[in-house]
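REQUEST FORM: STRUCTURE PREDICTION
Request ID: SP-0412
Submitted by: Lab K.M.
Chain count: 1
Length (residues): 339
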Amino acid sequence: MTLLEVRDLHVSFPTIDGLVQAVRGVSFSIEPGHTLGIVGESGSGKSVSTQTIMGLTRGAEISGQALFNGKDLLTMTESELRAVRGAQIAMIFQDPLSSLHPYYRVGWQIIEMIQAHEPHTSKTVAKKRAVDLLKLVGIAQPDRRVDDFPHQFSGGMRQRAMIAMAMALNPALLVADEPTTALDVTVQAQVLRVVERLQSEFGTAVILITHDLGVIAEVADDVIVMYAGKVMEAAPRDPLFYTNHHPYTEGLLASLPAYSGAGERLKSIAGQPPSLINPPPGCPFNPRCLYVMDRCRSQVPPLEQVYGDPNHRSACWLPHTKAERDSRHDQVMGVAVAP
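STATUS: Completed
RESULT:
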């Protein structure tokens, strides 16, 4: 059963320079208990897509559907959305220090959130739940730390406190927007373990937005790759990493140390992402693509099934069979592809 299904989402922002087409026809879905990873460069539309679903892009021009348990989030009133946010869909952001109010104790903020959705819950009961949640996410001495201010927590502890707040009402969906970017590698791993543990205990679905493919490799079940407001490739995790189709996905993976030989320089994708006020005709990646063909510059490729796998789709004019795709790689790169 699909928990959330986003269909043909478009989000644009009017500016004095023109209309910024931040999200252009994005579609995806997620099932209960699964983790969907959304990756791409800064400005690709990852965060805008999920913030729009949560009703956080005021002033934007929006079209499409976002069906959560069969109800369209995009047509809900503000009061209806407030009932959904926190209780059924929770969100954690990249910088917990800007999400937690500096003037109020961490426990008070968790209590306030609980009582906002459960007004009949007493402060005593809500505080006990806040302590239990802080313990659940691995904060030592939670009965004492519950009365600390955010500045008394480390970065990793603040992020775990945000996860505790997000999970206070056992939401069906957790949206994590770059939750580990500002943390060191060790703390990143701790935060990801917390999310995984909570997911296994409560069956929560997770949308994880990141530019870190290493994080995606650890936790995601399915992945969508975004570029210039569009989905370039969508696949389960392993096919995306080992049998990717789109040149943009190939370029992202080639930039990782694990894909470079010993002593070799890391490979980057030449050029810059396009303007979303005046995106290029055809495939948005064509100005930077090593495989570019004439039709790429004039025709927008549809997101279609590749390699005979109904769960693997790519928006690219390259051949859709693996043998032909590998042959094109061999021609362009001059390096034979391992069978």
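NOTES: The chain has a mean pLDDT of 90.
Reviewed by: T.R.
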